[in-house]
Amino acid sequence: MKLIKPSYKIRTKFNTKEVLSDIIDNGIEILKDIEDAGRTCYKSENKITNESAPKFIKMLLDKGHESVLEHQIISVRFVCDRGVSHELVRHRIAAHSQESTRYCNYSKDKFDNQLTFIIPCWVENIPEGEYKLKIEDKRLYSDKFDNNRDDINSMWFWSLANNEITYNKLIEDGWQPQQARAILPNSLKTEICTTANLREWRTIFKQRTSKAAHPQMRELMCPLLDELKTKLPVIFDDINY
Predict the structure, then answer these.
(1) Where are the domains of the chain?
(2) 10, 62, 104, 209: which sits with the fewest CB atoms below 10 Å from its CB?
(3) pLDDT score, position 20
(4) pLDDT of amino acid 17
(5) Which residues contact 204 (CB under 8 A, 6 or more apart)?
(6) Residue 98 in contact with residue 224, Cβ under 8 Å?
(7) How many whole angstroms separate alpha carbon 91 and alpha carbon 94?
(8) 158 burial type by CB count under 10 A (0-12 exposed, 13-18 middle, 19+ buried)
(9) Cα Rg for the chain, rounded, in angstroms?
(10) What is the pTM of this model?
(11) How many CA atoms, within 13 angstroms, populate the side-chain half-sphere of residue 154?
């Protein structure tokens, strides 16, 4: 059994070229493209300069003219638990490609023959890492976790340990992954690539960085918003949490 923290990685498409490392360093190029499209409405392309894009886009945002932001997209890969992903896919003006529990057989070597779970941000004193499990005298043991520990976080840990044991046993006895997945919990790690235009990302950030949002969602979205504010001036500057 493996426990990890959630994470994200920005990936993006720009002029049909996919960048899998980080968003284009010079975010001003994205702003220039938005300005070029937006000035079509006013036929003011003659006012475009090397420095005019941020001011023009801020003017549009101040007026609520956000449709022009749909000309550019951002793509992000999230590593999160299934519960967070269920909320994320509710943003329908977006493309989502997610790790499938129907086709992924976690008992295979490519997954190190184990399930991976996300540590919730409120669970303390349980570190990331691999935990070897074994059953002796019908009792489940872990190599790095005190079997006698009795607290609310250990209840979470042992429920997941039992989950892995049961999942592997179901596969071993003939169930397919799409059948054995019936017992998998929300804490299961999943990867999901989400691509949306900048206008939709503004909506996502307004909803998912709010103090009313789920804490695990905020754990991902707040730092992502902060990073994008440094990469793309103006677009997200007015969104605070």
Answers:
(1) 4-97+189-231, 120-183
(2) 62
(3) 39
(4) 43
(5) 91, 94, 196, 221
(6) no
(7) 6
(8) middle
(9) 22
(10) 0.91
(11) 11
Q: Assign 138 a pLDDT band (cuts: 50, 70, 90).
A: confident
Q: Evaluate if residue 16 carries a pLDDT over 70.
A: no
Average pLDDT taken over every residue of the chain: 92
- CA distances (Å), 194 to each of 30, 38, 48, 201, in order? 19, 25, 32, 10
Q: What is the token pair recorded at 158? A: 């042992």
Closest alpha carbon to 81 in 186, 224, 215, 209: 186
Pair of tokens at residue 175: 């169930």
Amino acid at 175: W
The CA distance from 207 to 221, in Å, is: 10
Range 90-99 average pLDDT? 96
CATH architecture, domain 4-97+189-231: 2-Layer Sandwich (3.30)
